[in-house]
Structure formats: C-alpha cells, structure tokens
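Case study 2.
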Amino acid sequence: MTDRIVGMLVLLLAVGYALVASRMQVGFLSDPLGPRPFPYIIATLMSLSALWLLFKPDPNPTWPEPRFWLSFSLVLASLVAYAYLIVPLGFILTTTLEMTLLSVLFGARWWQGLGGALAFTLAVYFLFTEGLGVPLPAGRIFG
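Prediction:
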C-alpha cells in the first residue's frame, strides 16, 4: 500500500509540475528547442515512475532504519539551503560547501570531502563558464 500512496503523490506532483511548466514564458530569441521541453521531460519521467509504483508495487516493502531519516532530513535541508544560497554566495562557495556536507554525511572525512568538492566545483565551473559559455552566479558578496 505504501508504494501506491507514494506513486499517487508523485503522480500528482508530476501533473502539478507540468501545469506550472506550461505557464513558463520563453524569450523570443532563444534557440529553436529552448528550455521549454526540459520540464515536460522531467514530468513525463516522474509520471512513468509513479505509474510503475501504482501498478507494480513491491509486495514486501521495508522501511529504512530510524537513523536513516536523520541523514535524509539533513540532505533535504541542505539542498533547500543550497537553492536559496547559490545566488547570494555564488556557485563556487555554495557548491563546495554543499558537496563537502554531503561527503561528510556519506562517510568521508571533512578534509577529503572539502578537497574533492573544491576540485569538482572548479572543474564544473570552468566547464560551464568557459567551455559551454553558460554564466554561473558569482555571488552578491563577491560582486
């Protein structure tokens, strides 16, 4: 029964996401495909996953241990904070802090997480800004 409840919630979320995407305004000079299909692709994949849960539920679902929910809550809260902090703090600082926290939550030592996060963040930053020409936020703090 739990799979069906989750499936119904995900299906409702996908429909709501598609409705919000239908109201998205796209600039006149964007490329022919533009950003408009991307939310529809996500909504379609979410809907297919939800339908799978509705029609092929797990006969013996098991719930995670209670200690899992603390880590899950911290990951969810950190991702919400990341979304709010990326513009004021900038991509490099925010992504480095987020990836360091996620690394520590998944068992890495903080200095290992920091080193890996910084290397990955800088690689992605230069890939997007220099390679693809996509500007990423520098942060209001840093101008």
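Helices lie at 2-22, 37-55, 66-89, 91-105, 110-131.
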